């Protein structure tokens, strides 16, 4: 396999009108015969082709591209890429401009190659050509289909097939028939390409564009002989985005981002070119994967393609650095060596690849045919069976009708045999016929019995089968309906079960919630001061209740004796009084029972007790015959009543005390809260003060240092400047500063005092808190 180097051409564009206007100088010269470019004074480069400012598009095409197009038609892959600084003439050379605005002789490489290709096709009628085109751009390292803008960037992927050919999966390939069709596709792609205005170029391409023509050629059937195969080849036309010096272009925002991506892609391409141009490259790694452009060109660069690199440069001395860099870049590319081959038989290879698949398919087809035959046979068999079944049914019907006839004939002949006088021979024959029929019938019955295993039935067999079939169908229908019903019911049951589950869950949750609430209430009951107070109150009431009940019991004992010591009238009075007393006691009892939190009116009680006491006294006055026992009982009753009154009074007093204490506690709690708040405020004030103090201290320190410096300066006898007025002003300022510093000192002292006060306050506060705690503990 022959190794051929990459051909490198350099094209120097003429100075543009704006460059002439700015009187820019030319810094590039060409030595046409030697294919040399001299830039500046002493940078000389030799290339395969050099084109000066007067070179035409036709010239560039004829020299650089025509041989590639010939190679393409011979079955070789080809690649031309234009490299150079922004605004150096790449798009102009490649032909990526709007062709409507370009004169025919200014058309670039691509339209010329298209024309030539279709001219070639038209001249080779013996070959069947299939031409496809695609147009892709790499914008900010993302692929974009310029012929189908609806294709999302995410759907385009660079892949490598098993032969190492780069394939862009998802890109549209248009099958084309004539040059005009391709030109219009090219134009629509050019229009869709990302371009923008920069300081360096009014129509700057902001992306790398790859226009690809793929051809597949095969001898026409009439000219074909067995030895000839088909050929497939492709031609990439690559218009790279221009290299840009960010400082020079002044790009910002989106343009800046584009520049970064463009330069990184070009840098990756430069690295690939360097690696490929390195004589020790066999061991070196080729960094194709670093950028999309290098991944796409992987199968061409350094591999199976004939390559021409066109380096475009500006002649302006202002672009000297960029042009020199481009020439160095191109110089490296000269070292790349490729091994192009004619791409024969991709179809045959494909057929080879597909052979096992074809074999499998053939086998599958055969087995399909066999099974089809079987199916056919089966169908035939089925048809035969059904016709036989029909025949059988018909025969059975015939048989039964014949049997009926025979049965009837038998009966008739048996009668005739008995009644009619026949000749002996006739009678014998009849007799033998009858016995034969009987024998046949008997045999038939035995066969039927063994077949069915049942008693003989008068219904023909086929009719029974049909009937049973119908019954079976009905049963199946009923079964299906039942099943449907069953599934419905099942579903309903399922729903109900779910509902029950949900309700149970809800109930459980509610129970848990209730428990939690009860628990919280219980815990709160032990900790909250008002509840404690209530509990204490309740305790008091219970004790009071116990005392009252004891008194009542004693009272009952007392009243049991009273009726025996009075006459009837007095009895009534006493009874009335007794009832009123009892009622009053019972009333008190009921009141106490009704609400433990309610204190009974002490004055009421006293009044009732007095009343009972008086009534007892009057009873004692009317009955002079009362015994000592009754006296003592009455006395004890009065004493008890007094005791009760006393305890009621004490209880009322204690309750009042408790109320007062609770009120006091509440006030003190509020006081504590206030004090804490004040303490916090005082703390924040003191913090702010200390912050201010530290600031002031710093300022004082600064003032001090400045003062000492000024003093030093004043002490210097040689300092002439001191006598100057501005210097004096400065000194005055310094003095002012010193005064301010002194003031600050005073402020600082005040602040310190304030801080001390705050500390004292805090101390007092803590003492009060301690005292309050002690008091509350005592209470
Ligand atoms: N050989 C030439 N003869 C006359 N004019 C040229 C030539 N080369 C380039 N120009 C002009 O120079 C300008 C810039 O060219 P072009 O747009 O092709 O640059 P570019 O290298 O593609 O720039 P970019 O990288 O920014 O896209 C265009 O106006 C173009 O017409």
From TrEMBL:
Keyword match rRNA-binding: no
Compartment(s): Cell projection, Cilium; Cytoplasm, Cytoskeleton
A GO biological process held by the record: microtubule-based movement
GO molecular function: ATP binding; microtubule binding; microtubule motor activity
Keywords for this protein: ATP-binding, Cell projection, Cilium, Coiled coil, Cytoplasm, Cytoskeleton, Microtubule, Motor protein, Nucleotide-binding
InterPro entries found in the cross-reference section: Kinesin-like_fam (IPR027640), Kinesin_motor_CS (IPR019821), Kinesin_motor_dom (IPR001752), Kinesin_motor_dom_sf (IPR036961), P-loop_NTPase (IPR027417)
Keyword Acyltransferase recorded: no
Annotated region described as Disordered, given as residue ranges: 613-633
Short name of any one Pfam family annotated for the protein: Kinesin
Gene Ontology cellular component list: cilium; microtubule; microtubule associated complex
Coiled-coil blocks: 644-713, 744-771
Domain Kinesin motor: 5-336
Residue spans of biased composition, Polar residues class: 613-625
Binding positions for ATP per the UniProt entry: 84-91
Family: Belongs to the TRAFAC class myosin-kinesin ATPase superfamily. Kinesin family.
PANTHER family, per database record: CHROMOSOME-ASSOCIATED KINESIN KIF4A-RELATED, KINESIN FAMILY MEMBER 27
Protein name: Kinesin-like protein
Species this protein is from: Lonchura striata (white-rumped munia)
């Amino acid at each position: 396999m022959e190794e051929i180097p990459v051909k490198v051409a350099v094209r120097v564009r003429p100075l543009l009108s704006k460059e002439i206007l700015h009187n820019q100088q030319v810094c590039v010269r060409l030595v046409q015969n030697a294919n040399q470019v001299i830039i500046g004074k002493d940078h000389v480069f030799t290339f395969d082709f050099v084109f000066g400012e007067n070179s035409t598009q036709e010239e560039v095409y004829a020299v650089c591209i025509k041989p590639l197009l010939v190679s393409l038609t011979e079955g070789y892959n080809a690649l031309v890429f234009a490299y150079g600084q922004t605004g150096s003439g790449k798009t102009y050379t490649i032909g990526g401009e709007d062709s409507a605005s370009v004169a025919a002789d200014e058309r670039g490489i691509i339209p010329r190659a298209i024309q030539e290709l279709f001219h070639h096709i038209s001249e080779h009628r013996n070959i069947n050509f299939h031409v496809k085109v695609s147009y892709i751009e790499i914008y900010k390292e993302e692929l974009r289909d310029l012929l189908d803008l609806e294709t999302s960037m995410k759907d385009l992927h660079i892949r490598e097939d098993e032969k190492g050919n780069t394939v862009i999966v998802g890109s549209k390939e248009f099958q084309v028939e004539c040059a005009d069709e391709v030109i219009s596709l090219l134009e629509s792609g050019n229009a869709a390409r990302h371009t923008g205005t920069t300081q360096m170029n009014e129509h700057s391409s902001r992306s790398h564009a790859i226009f690809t023509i793929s051809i597949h050629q095969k001898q026409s059937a009439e000219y074909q002989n067995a030895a000839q195969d088909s050929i497939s080849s492709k031609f990439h036309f690559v218009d790279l985005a221009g290299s840009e010096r960010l400082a020079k272009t002044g790009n910002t925002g989106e343009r800046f981002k584009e520049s970064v991506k463009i330069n990184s892609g070009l840098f990756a391409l430069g690295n690939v070119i360097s690696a490929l141009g390195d004589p020790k490259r066999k061991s070196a790694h080729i960094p194709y994967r670093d950028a999309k452009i290098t991944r796409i060109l992987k199968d061409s660069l350094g591999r199976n393609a004939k390559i021409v690199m066109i380096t475009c440069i500006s002649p302006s001395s202002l672009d000297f650095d960029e042009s020199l860099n481009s020439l160095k870049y191109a110089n490296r590319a000269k070292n790349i060596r490729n091994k192009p081959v004619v791409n024969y038989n991709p179809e045959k290879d494909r057929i080879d690849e597909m052979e096992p698949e074809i074999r499998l398919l053939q086998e599958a087809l055969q087995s399909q045919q066999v099974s089809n035959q079987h199916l056919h046979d089966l169908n035939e068999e089925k048809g035969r069976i059904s016709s036989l079944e029909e025949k059988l049914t018909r025969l059975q019907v015939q048989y039964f009708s014949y049997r009926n006839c025979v049965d009837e004939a038998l009966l008739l002949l048996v009668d005739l045999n008995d009644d009619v006088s026949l000749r002996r021979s006739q009678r014998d024959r009849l007799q033998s016929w009858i016995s034969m029929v009987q024998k046949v019938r008997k045999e038939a019955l035995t066969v039927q019995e063994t077949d069915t295993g049942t008693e003989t039935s008068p219904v023909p067999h086929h009719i029974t089968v049909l009937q049973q079939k119908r019954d079976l169908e009905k049963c199946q229908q009923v079964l299906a309906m039942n099943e449907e019903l069953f599934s419905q019911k099942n579903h309903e049951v399922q729903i109900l079960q779910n509902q029950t589950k949900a309700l149970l869950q809800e109930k459980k949750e509610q129970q848990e919630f209730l428990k939690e609430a009860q628990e919280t209430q219980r815990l709160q009951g032990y900790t909250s001061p008002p509840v404690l107070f209530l509990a204490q109150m309740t305790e008091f009431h219970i004790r009071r209740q116990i005392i009252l009940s004891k008194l009542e019991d004693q009272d009952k004992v007392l009243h049991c004796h009273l009726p025996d010591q009075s006459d009837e009238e007095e009895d009534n009075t006493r009874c009335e009084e007794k009832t009123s007393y009892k009622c009053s006691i019972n009333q008190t009892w009921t009141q106490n029972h009704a609400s433990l939190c309610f204190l009974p009116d002490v004055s009421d009680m006293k009044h009732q007790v007095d009343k009972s006491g008086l009534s007892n006294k009057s009873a004692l006055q009317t009955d002079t015959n009362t015994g000592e026992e009754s006296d003592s009982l009455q006395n004890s009753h009065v004493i008890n009543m007094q005791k009760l009154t006393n305890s009621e009074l004490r209880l009322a007093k204690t309750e009042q005390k408790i109320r007062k204490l609770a009120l006091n506690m509440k006030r003190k709690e509020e006081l504590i809260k206030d004090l804490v708040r004040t303490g916090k405020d005082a703390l924040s004030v003191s913090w702010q003060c200390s912050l201010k103090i530290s600031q002031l201290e710093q300022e004082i320190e600064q003032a001090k240092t400045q003062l000492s410096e000024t003093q030093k300066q004043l002490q210097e006898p040689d300092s002439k400047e001191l006598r100057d007025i501005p210097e004096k002003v400065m000194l005055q300022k310094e003095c002012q500063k010193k005064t301010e510093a002194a003031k600050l000192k005073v402020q600082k002292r005040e602040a310190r005092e304030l801080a001390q006060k705050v500390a004292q306050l805090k101390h007092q506060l803590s003492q009060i808190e301690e005292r309050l705690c002690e008091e509350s503990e005592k209470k």
